[in-house]
Amino acid sequence: MIVLLGVLVVVLGFATRRNPLLVVGVAGIVTGLLGKLSPVEVLRTFGESFASSRSVTIFAITLPVIGLLERNGLQQQARTLIGKLGTKLTTGRFLTLYLLLRQVTAAVGLQTIGGPAQSVRPMIAPMAEAATERRWGHLSAAAGGGGRPLPEKVREKVRSHSAGTDTVGLFFGEDCFLAIGSILLITGLVNSTYHTHLEPLHLALWAIPSAVCAFFIHGGRLLRLDRTLERELVTANAQMAVEREDALDRSEEGGAAK
Amino acid sequence: MIKSEWFFWLVGAVFLAMAAQMVVDRTNPKRLGTAAFWGLLGLCFFYSTGVNDKSLPSEPLGVAVLALICLGGFNLTGKGKPDTTSESERARLAARFGGKLFIPALTIPLIAMVCAVVADKWKIGGRPLLEEGSETILGLGLGAIVALGVGMWVLRERRASVPLHAGRGLLESMGWALLLPQLLAVLGAIFQAAGVGNQVRKITESVLPDGQKLTAVAVYCVGMAVFTMIMGNAFAAFPVMTAAVGWPVLIEQMNGNPAAVLAVGMLAGFCGTLCTPMAANFNLVPAALLELKDQYGPIKAQAPTAGAMLACNILIIYLFAF
To answer: Which of A32, A83, A245, B112 pairs as cysteine with B139 (C-beta 3.0–4.6 A)?
Structure first.
């Protein structure tokens, strides 16, 4: 039973945000010693399992070509591509399209062309917001108060969904690529620990059903987001109209009292 | 026959070459620690070949792994300012090359797929062209090499040092985190050697009623998600939950398909990542970047999808893995 303290070391270490490498090192040594391995045997296990799990780290071999493409404008080109999509769409439809694009590109190994800093802040959030603003502009112009900024609550919601869509698309797309860290971790761990043979390709194929489900679930929610936003915009607009009338009434009363 | 060890040597050589560049990079305040980390890692890739075929002792490799852990863990690595193109230059280059930029990137998965599906049947002189059981990994390696060639041709780049420098920039910005998945695999092996798997198996078997497939699958998936939420990292939860339920109960006892159980189990962990502030880089950093008042905004946007996907993943394993 006492070897389970090793698991506790991992949980506590990660939960208190210690450096993950140190957590792994300490947990490995503690667990090995508690499991009645001698210090030399612990070292041997570290060495042998490192040697048999090298395949986990080999995705580093793709870095030179990705780096070369990025310095020649890969991310900028991806942005241009997305920019062409989003000029006439509603917020929800635009984000659904981005979800699909993010999933498909991640599934062929292009995880780095998106991300909060690479695409969401410079590109996705502003375009999603612009779509909502277009709608808000129509609504408030019809009520006689054009040119007002988006209600804060709505703006926050649109931005949050922009970030969320990027993350969901990445998570449920990348595992369809066979050389991603999580897939290689599974094969590396299982092949060195349980002495069997798993092919990364089979794991990647089994990630496809979840990827499809994720597209329909999250895409469906994004399309519903359009309706939620519409409702919130209408309410906010009505509220502002009431406030404006109140203000008018008050200024009239003030005028009468003078 | 092309052997997977050759490919590991290539990766090791790339790490060593990058380490040599790091030593002379004066823009990196921790250049020696950084170079020591990646150089040692490169050497370990070569030495491991001897450990695998039992011609070299494994203890020195264990010491080297602990040294890597200390170099990364005590923050002795850093990054320099890579000599690269500016944002405006990149925009100009992107306009010049256009869609051609995607060709080299798509070459990698294409060749990896071809090697995994078709080339494993190719033979030269009666022996398979690619070492058996390593087709996918070799495909990735060949794909990366061919893609680099295609990329240099498409982009009219003649100097081999340019991609090496660009790759080193990415390597330095990822830092020691790049090694974390492999070390978690090592930890899983130590857990197994120390008998953690057996202990947890006894506990789960006494708790789980016999043959209750749906319950067992749900325990595995929900466990992955919850552990991931606590630790902020599905990679760290995976060795624990797989030793506890995934391997002994779902795969050995109930004869589940290992690829399906483990691949979808990992995705169940990702559902946890979507819901936890512990995964700061995915959930809190975007909120800061987008200047949100509510730093949990992205988590609130993601949580319903995460819940539904967890249910989907449980059903996918339950319906298709047995």
So the answer is: B112
pLDDT of residue A213: 95
ipTM of the complex in this document: 0.83
Closest residue in chain A to residue B60, using alpha carbons only: A47
Give the CA dihedral B55, B58, B63, B66, nearest 10 degrees: 120
Nearest CB neighbour to A72, from listed B155, B181, B297:
B155
SS (H, E, C) chain B: CECHHHHHHHHHHHHHHHHHHHHCCCCCCCHHHHHHHHHHHHHHHHHHHHHHCCCCCCHHHHHHHHHHHHHHHCCCCCCCCCCCCCHHHHHHHHHHHHHHHHHHHHHHHHHHHHHHHCHHHCEECCEECECCCCHHHHHHHHHHHHHHHHHHHHCCCCCCHHHHHHHHHHHHHHHHHHHHHHHHHHHHHHHHHHCHHHHHHHHHHHHCCCCCHHHHHHHHHHHHHHHHHHHCCHHHHHHHHHHHHHHHHHHHHCCCCHHHHHHHHHHHHHHHHCCCCCCHHHHHHHHHHCCCCCCCHHHHHHHHHHHHHHHHHHHHHHHHCC
* Residue B120 pLDDT grade (very low, low, confident, very high; cuts 50, 70, 90): low
Q: For residues A132-161, give the mean pLDDT.
A: 83
Nearest CB among A31, A61, A184 relative to B141 is that of A61
Nearest to A14 among B182, B232, B309 (CB): B232
Q: Which of A2, A12, A23, A63 to mutate to test the interface with B (most CBs of B within 10 A)?
A: A63
Whether B133 has a pLDDT exceeding 70, the answer reads: no
Residue ranges of domains in chain B: 1-81+161-176, 87-158, 195-320
Hey, which residues 204-233 in chain A have their CB within 8 Å of chain B?
A: 204-207, 209-210, 213-214, 217-218, 221
* Chain A nearest C-alpha distance from B305 (Å): 6
Give pTM, 2 decimals.
0.79
